[in-house]
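Re: your question from the hallway

Yes, I did run it. Sequences:
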Amino acid sequence: MSKKKILVVDDEKNIRTMIRNCLDEKEYEIDIAVNGEEGFTKLNENDYDITLLDIKMPGITGLELLKKLRDNEIYVDVVMMTAYGTVERAVEAMKLGAIDFISKPFTPAEIRDIVETVIGRKQLEESNVESFKDTVEFAKSCILSQEYDKATEYLKKAVGMEVDSPEPHNLLGVLSEMNGDKMKAQNHYRAALALDPTYESASKNLSRVVIDGNNNKKIDLGGTRIKKTERNNGK
Amino acid sequence: MRGESKEKYIIIVGCGRLGAVLASSLAESKLNSVVVIDKKEDAFDRLGGSFSGFKIINDATEIDTLAQAKIQEADVLVATTNHDNVNIMVAQIAKKIYDVPKVFARLTEPERAKVYEELGIETISPTELSAIEFKRIIMEYGEME
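Structure:
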């Protein structure tokens, strides 16, 4: 199997080095760009399987680069790396076809997990969707291709498959927010929190919808959450 | 991260000379993910260009700062500031609230070690370590003579 090509776009050298260290060089070919301008040039000239894109950079920001890529019909899969503890302007990113977020600081396991998930999602076909994880990932791919009704349908299926998982409820909340239905979004976030009161993504989303009443900041898609049980198993 | 994995998620509080050397050294291993916290941005200059970890500019005695550092994922926390009271407070939060498996605190006044011990926090006193090493060298020198 050929190596997957990854472009890391981040102005901080320590982060670029850390990501390079995390990913197995036998499986991945890592290229780097030190700012948005260089990132655009490289993405315009080469084919990459994924790009890991820092949202906050001097010059062209991650979000601006994402928009520029889409304007130029470059549809590489993007993982947005967000500032410490926050997921900002995710609705905009999602509309531009970026649904995967990882918040700094991240662990090597988190970065590997998200890269594997994004690559795995690309290989997912509707006819082969069986497991809960595949169903959620397929729903995410529907969101990326702007098939929101289909995404909702698969998220509802996911709810039925694993009734105690908060993630599909959280994503249904995000979709409701995108449709402008805050009440419905609140209900979904509350459902997620009822299942897991420690689910931070839903907690942040609910606080924002209820207290801030602002749709355009800090939507948390909860994409990089690693279950406590998996952590305890040394994943 | 917590568990049997060889990879370690390490938080270092304080980027003074000790914190910076420790952070840089730990980050050299591909198996470690290192996060350094310090209130002063220029403190991170001590880390050097090859440091591969995360920097958080904030006050580590604030719970929000520790949450930003994802303390709930941490395998190890080391409090290395020049202030014993800060170190003990951060170490205590890490141990008691977040149940971090390994918590170490730097101790500038060795006579306070007992307080830390009662809280279940391991301490390292650079003063004491230096004294022990000096003594060892002096004793070896005597034997050689």
